[in-house]
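User: What would this chain look like folded?
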Amino acid sequence: MPDLVLASSSKYRLQILQTLGLAFESRAPDIDESPRHEETPRDLVLRLAKAKAQALAPYYTDALIIGSDQVALIDGSLLGKPHNYENAFAQLKRCSGRTVEFSTGLCLLNANTGEVDALVEPFFVRFRTLSEAQIENYLYKEEPYDCAGSFKSEGLGIALFEELRGRDPNSLIGLPLIQLVTMLSRAGLDVLSQPR
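Assistant: Here's the prediction, encoded as structure tokens.
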């Protein structure tokens, strides 16, 4: 069986993948993540998920390599990682009472054969109407400054939401496991049949 490699430096993606109980390596891909002129958000995340996996192929020639990328959109504009309190506060204030779409690109590359299995998984988040005090309190408690959309849904961030819509809640954290398990199965790796 080929090795399994996660092409990511995200601690959140690493934690999600660990839940499957598979042995894998993780390595950060060195790629330019800048959007291209007139590239749609969907096209961007699909291209970057593939590029991340392909960037590691020369180093792992007999591996299944997982690439993933995510964007958050409100009114058609991107919500990136806030990096600080001020930006996070502004993002959450903008999201208050509204729906944000998350698009996650996922790619499984068989480095040995060059076969690529890729898709974009959508997920929708409806935010509660939040007061400034609630936003401030949340940010001081969780400090989600390295998360697109300024929240951690796997933590206290769940209290920010009124509704979640999508096939896989892991998409919201950046790695759609339901689709990944399907891709791994197509590549010959049955997650549920792996020894302990």
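The domain at 3-193 is CATH 3.90.950.10 (Maf protein). If you want, I can go into more detail on any region.
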